[in-house]
């Protein structure tokens, strides 16, 4: 049958008899048994001592095939060991000459399943497999599949489209994994999107597979970077920037100098990686990063495109923004203005380089974005005044109250703040991180004061997945406030619901939050939210699924009609205590 033919493919070319020859011999002979014996003698294992051993095995009922198979397996193992040994011994030219000769002799048998491993092993050890052989492998799906990654690299480096087909599903998987974390049903201020350390993230399946595919091949590394740039331009998805940095650092972990030394971003990324690990840019590293930026030479400005992509990684932005908020608080204590702090100015410089990545790569104009003076002279002092307001209010609360009564918390927001959040990307990013900061401090007053400024922000940043993921996590710290009508109205009606109908992702984040906190929300409010959040015909599967989960949880909380009827009206209902199941 055809399977049989494939098993012995290519033997005839080498002058080795196969089943067809035996068939022919038997068809054209007068004494079949004699002919079989002759065929066995001519084509058997040529060892004199075997002449007597084989009949002995026959007596024990061991089929000849089984015997030949075991001899064959043994020989194949020895051959594989020998090939690997040849690849390491003698002068470079000689050993490759030996392997090339071996490949020439054995390649015609590459389709024989039993011999294929040997041929593949020879190719794996050849740094340059002859072009003709690579073309034959490429043309045959099964052979291509069976190839070692060392051989595939040689094929990929001259076939960008084929390499793209291999890389593409991995990139899709990577983006999906990121989105699953951002939309995860687990909500916590302790564990969030930014919790895993860079080293842990680089152990991820996709980064490891890409690292393995690239090996030490600079050409393939460049191709992957080109894919990432193109996809970032096409989708504006910042997770591609994360992968750009993770891939470089994964090769750094393996000390692959062939690639690290030619990537001009290597040292900058390595230094920034240490900052991301600490979630803070300290003074020493700040100097180092500044040195790299100042050291970009005339004629090499294109490296700014790569550096901007590294700085656009959300993990980098998160670190820079957190460091900025910390610096602002320190400046309040030191009575220093933002423009007098070189460290703060450097953080802003890196933030604007990161936030300008898309425009720079798109326009191919490689120069650092100009920093708006207003950001430093007006916006940051405004933020500092909010920090001062909080200090003053806290101190006032502690002073013995005179006749004048309690001092109310300032409730208005300066118009300039709202305008900055709408018109200036860097101001908006820092403003959002300030709001995350006060939420994490459980500062309800400051949160409610600034919340209205989030309804309209620069390119809707306040409704982006990363911000909403962090905000929902931090809001769990204000859980008890959800029992208050006024708090819920400000948060839901005043913020979330303004975008739910036009932005599917916001709808999802609100449902995530309610799944987590529904037992804290005032019942009347919960009912109106349930109506407002009902999915429409246009809603995606994720929204419907979350809404169904929420409905199920709320059904479980409702007392049955019988229980309601039996409650004597005199007794006060007990406050509902969340049971672990309702969490």
TrEMBL record:
UniProt-annotated stretches for the region Disordered: 557-583
Any matching Pfam family: COBRA1
A GO cellular component annotation in the UniProt record: NELF complex
GO biological process, one term: negative regulation of transcription elongation by RNA polymerase II
InterPro entries in alphabetical order: COBRA1 (IPR010405)
Full protein name: NELFB factor
Species in which this protein is naturally found: Serilophus lunatus
Lineage, uppermost ranks: Eukaryota, Metazoa, Chordata, Craniata, Vertebrata
Name of the encoding gene: Nelfb
């Amino acid at each position: 049958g055809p399977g049989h033919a494939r098993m012995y493919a290519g033997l005839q070319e080498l002058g080795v008899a196969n089943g067809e020859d035996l068939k022919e011999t038997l068809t054209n002979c007068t004494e079949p048994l004699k002919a079989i014996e002759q065929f066995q003698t001519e084509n058997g294992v040529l060892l004199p001592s075997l002449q007597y051993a084989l009949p002995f095995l026959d007596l024990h009922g061991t089929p000849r095939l089984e015997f030949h198979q075991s001899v064959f397996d043994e020989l194949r193992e020895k051959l594989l060991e020998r090939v690997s040994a040849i690849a390491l011994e003698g002068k470079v030219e000689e050993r490759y000459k030996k392997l090339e000769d071996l490949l020439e002799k054995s390649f015609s048998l590459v389709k024989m399943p039993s011999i294929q491993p040997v041929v593949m092993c020879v190719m794996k050890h050849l740094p340059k497999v002859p072009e003709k052989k690579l073309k034959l492998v490429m043309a045959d799906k099964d052979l291509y599949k069976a190839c070692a990654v060392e051989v595939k690299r040689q094929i990929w480096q001259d076939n960008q489209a084929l390499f793209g087909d291999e890389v593409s599903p991995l990139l899709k998987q990577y983006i999906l994994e990121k989105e699953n974390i951002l939309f995860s049903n687990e909500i916590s201020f302790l564990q969030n999107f930014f919790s895993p350390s860079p080293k842990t993230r680089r152990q991820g399946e996709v980064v490891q597979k890409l690292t393995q595919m690239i090996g030490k091949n600079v050409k393939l590394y460049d191709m992957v970077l080109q894919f990432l740039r193109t996809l970032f331009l096409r989708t504006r998805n910042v997770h591609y920037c994360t992968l750009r940095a993770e891939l470089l650092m994964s090769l750094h972990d393996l000390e692959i100098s062939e690639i690290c030394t030619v990537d001009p971003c290597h040292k900058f990324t390595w230094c920034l990686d240490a900052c991301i690990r600490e979630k803070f840019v300290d003074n020493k590293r700040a100097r180092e990063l500044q040195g790299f930026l100042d050291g970009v030479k005339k004629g090499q400005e294109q490296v700014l495109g790569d550096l901007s992509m590294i700085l656009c990684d959300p993990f980098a932005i998160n670190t820079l923004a957190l460091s900025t908020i910390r610096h602002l608080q320190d400046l309040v204590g030191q009575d220093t203005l933002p423009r007098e702090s070189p460290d703060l100015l450097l953080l802003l410089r890196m933030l604007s380089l990161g936030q300008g990545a898309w425009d720079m790569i798109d326009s191919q104009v490689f120069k650092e974005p100009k920093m708006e003076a207003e950001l430093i002279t007006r916006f940051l002092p405004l933020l500092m005044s909010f920090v001062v307001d909080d200090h003053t209010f806290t101190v006032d609360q502690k002073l013995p109250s005179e006749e004048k009564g309690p001092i109310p918390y300032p409730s208005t927001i300066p118009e300039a703040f709202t305008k900055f959040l709408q018109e200036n990307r860097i101001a908006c990013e820092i403003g959002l991180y300030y709001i995350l900061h006060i939420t994490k401090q459980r500062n309800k007053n400051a949160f409610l004061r600034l919340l209205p400024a989030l309804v309209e922000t620069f390119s809707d940043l306040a409704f982006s997945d990363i911000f909403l993921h962090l905000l929902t996590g931090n809001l769990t710290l204000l859980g008890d406030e959800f029992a208050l009508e006024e708090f819920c109205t400000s948060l839901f009606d005043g913020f979330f619901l303004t975008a739910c109908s036009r932005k599917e992702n916001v709808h999802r984040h609100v449902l995530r939050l309610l799944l987590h906190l529904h037992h804290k929300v005032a019942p009347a409010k919960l009912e109106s939210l349930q109506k407002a959040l009902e999915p429409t015909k246009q809603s995606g599967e994720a929204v419907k699924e979350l809404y169904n989960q929420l409905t199920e949880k709320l059904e479980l909380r409702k007392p049955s009609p019988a229980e309601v009827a039996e409650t004597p009206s005199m007794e006060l209902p007990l406050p509902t205590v969340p049971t672990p199941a309702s969490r």
